[in-house]
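Deviations from the work plan: none for this task. Representative record:
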Amino acid sequence: MHEASIALSLLDAAGRNCAENNYKVINSLTVRIGKLSGVMPEALAFAFDALKAETPAENANLIIEEVNAAGVCKGCNSNFTLDASYIIECPLCGSGSFIITHGRELEFKEMEVDK
Amino acid sequence: MNVKVVSRILEANDRIAGENRKIFRDNGIYVLNLMSAPGAGKTTLLEATIRALKDRKKIGVIEGDIDTDRDAKRIAALDIPVVQINTKGACHLDANMIREVLNEFPVKDMDLLFIENVGNLVCPAEFDVGENEKVMILSVAEGDDKPLKYPLMFQESAALLLNKIDLLPYVDCSIDKIRTDVAKLNPKIKIFETSCRTGDGLSGWYEWLMGKGE
């Protein structure tokens, strides 16, 4: 539901980077979105396209890399990954005691630009 | 040309949240971010809390709503500092909105600041506003399936109020199921069972609050 705020923050950060480095045009932006972040990729892409006009990214493609959830279980000491939007227990041993290591990402990874 | 960036998309929000946090710390203000679905009872809980504690704590309130100042008027009637933020469509408060209203508060003369977020079980959990802790309210009328449907908010909160327990005879909601699911999501969360109509369970919540910022 807050995909529009995220798209705006991304466009702001990209615009600032362009101004500081004299990049004229952004051809594409790549973001990494964790599956535990609650962000819907389709909604983010829609918001980005709606908000990119009159910015250096006005003709840019948004490339979204989804990141699976991953954790380290304190019960069985194993590393696990999950294609899910939440984790409530270790998928291997069922323990509820674990550390989430991936899946919460909301990261601006890179962009393709022309000088 | 490829440019590596690698930064948090919400970096700007996180930076301002950090600045807010410093202002709160420097002035000795303990800040709680109150989150729930619309209608769970956030404002009614705040009214009861302010009446109970205002002689012992200097309390301030920031009210976040999409529109109207109804909640701020209810709080202002209790004669404490309150500011209403209207997000005009945004589904959550962000750090900059909080920053912009801080100069309307007597920050040097406040112990406890409640930030009542926009009613929503998803987005407010994602935006740090500079609070010390997040507190969540779930009314029993919303049903016992909510922790697993909206896990992030339960994972992020330090305390959970299971509110409107006076309605339990009339709704199909198992407190045991909520407790079991929430314990899996967040074993450390402190749970209070409350009713602002009967006053049940509120003393435990007040006691928890009185221990904050001491």
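The first strand of chain A starts at residue 25 and ends at 34.
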